[in-house]
Amino acid sequence: FGTLLYEGTPVRLAGQDSRRGTFSQRHSVLVDYRTGEEYLPLNHVDENQGIFRVHDSLLSEFAALGFEYGYSVTNGDALVCWEGQFGDFVNGGQVIVDQFIVAGEDKWDQKSRLVLLLPHGYEGQGPEHSSARLERFLTLAAEDSIQVSQPTTAAQYFHVLRRQIRRPVSKPLILMTPKSLLRNPLARSKTEEFIEGHFKETLDDPQVKEPADVRRILMCSGKVAYELAEQRNQRGAPAAIVRLEQLYPFPEDQLSEIFDRYPSASQVRWVQEEPINMGAWDFVFKNLMGRGQLPDRLELSHAGRAESASPATGSMAIHKQEQEELMEAAFAD
Fold it and tell me: What pTM, to 2 d.p., does this model score?
């Protein structure tokens, strides 16, 4: 936000508890408890900066999301974001997603750069605080109507937001945003990654020193990549962890380059935290197998939670058990 404001771009953020941040990660407004006076540090970056507006919206996703979509259409030069307190709550604004955000350009040639910030990830917080319903957005995605991304490092988050306003193409951006990764030191980025880097649709495994030794490629999206890397190192498994940071549009060329890097690999396994009837598995399968993107030498399989009508369990004990079973399935022969 700060770099865009410094360059003169207005930034508007609205959502549920967005001024502080659901996970106390933002603190964008400071309040003098004696006088009630408010101070927004991001409005004091530079004399010629853009205006930063941040609002805690009412708990009607339908109304708030509809307003922000309209605002983004008429203010195309601004970065406009709507944030759910948890990504699960976007289901209250599904009508706006279906009728306007996804289909507005196709129906009316109405362009929008709206960003949806949807905290997503399985942390044992129950069925109403785990899933932003990634599968819904991937089912709706067609004709380059939207972008769907799940950044896993600080620099990736930084660059995907900057790309949204700096690239000439105007498309809504659906971001599965971090929860526990906000405080995971492994998700930190070096200073030069912000200054010189750019958003990468895929992230190859930085820990693999000898690509020829890799026998299995574990593909995933989100925080599960860090858990897989920890397990791989503990087990000494000949596996590479490849992250899809952008799911739609599907990064075919980038994945093809990664597959070529591991000539000895015979398996690709998609790993997800979501139940297998949810998440990105069906979408990934369609793009890799249905469109012939997977080399003949690679066999595709998947690992995920068992099919479920509910996104997640309400029991922390069961959640931990499921997570252990997921890791076992990811590395099973």
Answer: 0.95
